[in-house]
Amino acid sequence: MYWTEFFIPTNKEIPADAKIPSHQLMIRSGMIKQESSGIYSWLPLGFKVLKKIEKIVREEQEKAGAIEMLMPTLQAVELWKESGRYDGYGKEMLKIIDRHNRFLIYGPTNEEQVTEIFRAFVKSYKNLPLNLFHIQWKFRDEIRPRFGVMRGREFLMKDAYSFDLNEEESKKSYYKMFISYIKIFKRLKINTIPVVADSGEIGGSLSHEFSIITNTGEGQVYCDKRLFDLELDNDDLNNLSDLERAVGNYTQFYSATEDKHNEKIFKEKVPEEFRLKGKAIEVGHIFSFGEKYSSPMKAYITNKEGKNVSVYMGSYGIGVSRLVAAIIEYSHDKKGIIWPNSVTPFHVGIINVQADNKECLKVIQEIKSEFEENNLEVLVDDRDESVGKKYADMDLIGLPYILTIGPRDIKEKKVDVKFRHTDTKENLSIEGAINRITSLAKEKTRS
Ligand code: ATP
Ligand code: MG
Predict the structure, then answer these.
(1) Contact, 92 vs 99, CB < 8 A?
(2) What is the pTM assigned to this prediction?
(3) What pLDDT digit, counting tens, does each position of 361-377 carry?
(4) CATH assignment of 11-337?
């Protein structure tokens, strides 16, 4: 891609309400544009990143056996009355009146909708387990939308819903999602902390929130850093005891939110050098809630004995659009964003020092095609701008590898390469630069 043929409206002005780095950087790099409070357009550069995160989430959920579908954004009020959540959900629910004076809800979440789909088609334990997910826009009329897409009103969520015959089977589905989440966040290069979450009024249910610690999070979290170094064996785990063991590897480490934190136990269990506390942002939430919706909504199945029972359910959310901001909070410096290879909008940036030099253009074209043959995406800054401006913008938009090419470099067949992750520079032969970057980018993109 050539900068002049793309659309990256970088911005000097930062709105006064953009208080956190990710919000400022997303606006400055032309990734998003605010349309009204908590509602954003995703401009091409931001949209590219959003799609890449979505793809990783989809791949890992499918590997864990979940099946993708798409439910509508608008839902019938009646479903929410059936589940009993209509009155309780509160002012975050956006209601819309159609021309027949009927109320619709812009879905803040989809438990009711998916239970309705399930009960319409599934009647027997023989069709279980089932896990359905979609990646769809949600709307919550947050009282204080802030921090850009971190807490928007309209936001993109991946939500999966599991259906099982009984509690034990349901646990299996839950643990599979737990492991799938760990894999997703590993590929996104963020250290997440699984923290036991309040599971509401239902006894015996399981719930974890996956949070990252940043300076700008909301609630306080305490954890043991050794959690981040754990490696997952890549086997597909299928029986309950193997799954339990794999999850147990993570949950054995101390982690707690402020309200459940016990300083004495923290100090006993966690050596000082591994203690971590900080403000957290929730990027995912998994929840096993049994018959909470299936019972009032009469989502019954016949079990092995031929008896009608309510299906056991769980729900599993990931804030896909929030993750874009969360990754930036995690990975930026004074100059701009530093994208992990797995979600970077382009892998390689090439700065053309002399935009009108035909020789330079030709060599850049060749380098660009070579990268592209290796499945790396390239952005060439071919604008008629100062080199200083081009450097600054490349740093701002955060591409991992930046090549600078001018007439002298071509004569010497050499090129300056900047490695954004380590903030180092090297002067390499053109061939050497291509080989090095290709192998680095591939290594770091792998799951
Ligand atoms: P929070 O505690 O941050 O308000 P929540 O507990 O209400 O989140 P869930 O209902 O668990 O959120 O939704 C699943 C995921 O959707 C969350 O883990 C989060 O990543 C994302 N999410 C929730 N609310 C928003 C929002 N207003 N803007 C962006 N993402 C959100
Ligand atoms: Mg939550």
Answers:
(1) no
(2) 0.96
(3) 999 999 999 999 999 99
(4) 3.30.930.10
